Amino acid sequence: MAGEFALIDRIRARVVRRDDVVLGIGDDAALLQPAAGEQLVVAMDTLNVDVHFPGDTAPADIGWKALAVNLSDLAAMGARPAWCTLSLSLPAPDAGWVDAFLDGFDALARPHAVALVGGDTTRGPLSVCVAVHGFVAPGRALRRDRAQVGDDVWVSGTLGDAAAALAQWTAGGARDAALRRRLDRPEPRLALGQALAAHAHAAIDVSDGLLADLGHVCRASGVGAQIDVDALPASEALRRAAADAGQRRVLQAAGGDDYELCFTAPQHARAAIDEIARASGTPAIRIGRIVAGDGVVATTGDGTAWTPARAGWDHFAG
Ligand code: ADP
Ligand code: MG
How far, in Å, CA of 98 to CA of 11, rounded? Predict the structure, then answer.
């Protein structure tokens, strides 16, 4: 498209340098030198406007989130990120938009030493697709299909903030900046995921909602899970926004876009995981356990069976 090469030059000027990038942006393809003896871990995620982020999202936040959701997938595998590629579809070749997008992208790429090594730039509806490549020691990746009966189920950080922000945005009412920041700038839990690789049995990042994502782990592992919805971690901002426990449970258990890690680990690893959580600066707490059978059974604190009612969303709008 018109101005495509000017945009690519702007992107190229800002990329993180790494020794294992033999040839980055500028040729027909990138040349990369993987470290000997490592397994390559690859993930890709697309963000479409009004589907994966609200239309009023700032370009810098789109840049951050496009990389963050991909790094979150590597975190859930216990991998160390190295390289990424970026496919940008833009309604117009807007250099200011691209610069702002790169501000957010770079704010996450630089501290994690992720080099952008190539991509594609086209004209079309606003859409951003990123692929990330990282490494893990052979056999050490955290997979979905390794949960074992008797494992504890853990979750990092807090749940429900991003879903609350989206509900507020959709309702058009009060908007809490702290919640919106969780929606726009999710923190990939890379340090936690890498440290867990030696202790956890299975892991997934929570992108579609805790119950759905833990359900994926159960299905892949051929096990069931029991969780206590009242044990799910909630931020202060969520407690303020959703004072009603019923609303809050729906947002925490079924809301999406948290990008926390849900993982299972043997009970003898409890002390080690508490220490890893402390050292990585990412809290992690136990919310239930893996049992024989299939599916996720949720109960409230008093042991009553609980399923998310869609009504929780409607009430939240008021
Ligand atoms: P080709 O026509 O050979 O596919 P392009 O003109 O699409 O080449 O891209 C030229 C170079 O710029 C390539 O190295 C490509 O990887 C890189 N590139 C294009 N768009 C992007 C982008 N959005 N982000 C990073 N690199 C890009
Ligand atoms: Mg191309």
Answer: 8
